[in-house]
Model the fold of this input.
Amino acid sequence: MLTMKSYVFKESDWEIKWYVVDANGKVLGRLATQIATILRGKHRPTFTPHADMGYRVAVVNAEKVIVTGKKAEQKTYFRYSGYPSGDKYTTFKEQMQKKPEEIIRHAVKGMLPKNRLGRKLIKKLKVYAGPNHPHDAQLPEIVEI
Done:
């Protein structure tokens, strides 16, 4: 009888690889799903669900991401200060003016696992409002989404 062997990714198999994604004119949700897929390593045949596959993503032009429909006026972001009645709500437009990087980070974080692995992976995401990033030394591969 022929037995098949499953490949299990180990930390010794890590090869840290950087990707650069340009968010200029891209729809927020579709962009975030692609970034989350790369961070998890699901785009590779060696994907292992419990492992950090060693992929890093730098997103540039976060200030030029778009949303469809009326989300620009209706979408809100929630924060809580920890004090009674310390709820703070920010609309998409306000968030875009203050911290456009947080919009993409928030969307990607919602698509990652809600456990230790997810908290580890979100640290591997670097988001920049403008077209420049400081990761040229890592020889990043440009991803077209």
